[in-house]
Amino acid sequence: MNPDESRLHYPFGEQLPAAGTVLDVAPGVRWLRMPLPFELDHINLWLLRDRDAETGREGWAIVDCGIASDATRAAWEQVFARELQGLPVLRVIVTHMHPDHIGLAHWLTERFGVRLWISATDWNAAQLASRSTTGFGGPNAAAFMASHGLTEPDAVEKVTRRGDYYASMVPQVPQRFARLMDGDELRIGEHAWTCHAGHGHSPEHISLHCPALSVLISGDMVLPRISTNVSVIDIEPEGNPLPLYLASIARMKALPADTLVLPSHGKPFRGLHARIAQLTAHHDERFGALLAACAREPQTAASLLPVLFRRALDLHQTTFAMGEAIAHLNALWHRGQLRRERGADGVYRFSEAQRQAAQTQ
């Protein structure tokens, strides 16, 4: 456990729900985990006791779905057989469009004949990505990463060949949805849940807060052990998502400090305000490290990966790391603290703004 993590409180200790089983974490709130084929090997999903507003029928709302894989479907089958108390699924809620969250939404909504609930922005982004992978695979992504210094032929070829990255985990997206927006109040069973829209990690991520239970389903916006990935991708190359992310989590400080946070990765915890402060400090430290490196000599996003990530990265991790490095550099560039120039080789390099200004005088 790292020092930051040790400052949080984990009310369930080392308890984890085994595959196909659940743990009750609050009245009417059940925790389950699904496998992921990455180093980050799990996603937390949630079952909320629900009631159909029109018919009064009792059942469950599913929050997030897991990727489309045989292992995830098999785990869901166990949950359906053992953990629903004989009640149906009444709706599927998805926090955002990333594959581990929306991957099986089509399968679940079709199976139970229910509606998907999601923000309109993330529904549209999922539709686009499932038809043509964006961001982390395919020729456009490879060219974008090469323009930021990831030019090794083997890496370019591997990223280019990942053209089905998203669609392999999200083969279909439901064609109809119910829209979630910031400030919306959902009545789920006995309780009201307020939607908190967050930006930067995905276009319009929806977290859910229940004041009566003092529970926040944070999705990927606030995680206890790792920092949320915030990336710039090929379809918005000059994007500036990191300030949006930091502003989004800062707004969550309006929630009570002792809120039980249910994250998508890691364990449920208390210490929301402390974790937001840690994440803010983490990114401030990264900004400082990048400014120092760019003051020494012009840098590419690829050359800065060892500054930001002090361990070996596989291809999957490298693609996300590149997106995150560019996000930090773009934030400093938009602030005016760095300058960006594209060389004759087609690669962007960032340097200290004052230093470069002095050289040109």
The helix tally amounts to 13
- The first-to-last residue Cα distance is 50 Å
Q: Identify the quaternary structure here.
A: single chain
Helix fraction? 25-40%
Strand sequence of the main sheet, in spatial order? 1-2-3-4-5-6-7
Q: In percent terms, what proportion of residues is strand? A: 15-25%
Radius of gyration computed on alpha carbons: 21 Å
Provide the residue-averaged pLDDT: 94
Task: Find the CATH superfamily of the largest domain.
Answer: Ribonuclease Z/Hydroxyacylglutathione hydrolase-like
Order of helices and strands: HEEEEHEHHEHHHHEEEEEHEEHHHEEH
Write the layout of secondary structure elements.
Elements (H helix, E strand, L loop, with lengths): L2 H4 L16 E4 L2 E7 L6 E10 L6 E6 L6 H13 L6 E5 L5 H4 L2 H8 L3 E3 L1 H12 L7 H8 L6 H9 L3 H5 L7 E3 L5 E4 L2 E8 L6 E6 L4 E5 L21 H11 L8 E4 L5 E2 L1 H25 L8 H4 L6 H21 L2 E5 L5 E5 H8 L1
Parallel strand pairs: 4-5, 5-6, 6-7, 11-12
Antiparallel strand pairs: 1-2, 2-3, 3-4, 8-9, 9-10, 10-11, 12-13, 14-15
Helix pairs in contact: 6-7
Written description of the protein model:
With 361 residues, the protein is an alpha/beta fold. The protein has 2 domains: 3-281, 4-Layer Sandwich (Metallo-beta-lactamase, Chain A), CATH 3.60.15; 285-360, Orthogonal Bundle (Arc Repressor Mutant, subunit A), CATH 1.10.10.10. It is built from 13 helices and 15 strands. The chain has a 7-stranded mixed beta sheet. The chain has a 6-stranded mixed beta sheet with strand order 8-9-10-11-12-13. A two-stranded antiparallel sheet has the order 14-15. A hairpin with a 2-residue loop joins β8 (185-188) and β9. The longest helix is centred in the last third of the chain and has 25 residues, at 272-296. The protein is globular, with a radius of gyration of 21 Å. Residues 356-361 have low confidence and may be disordered.
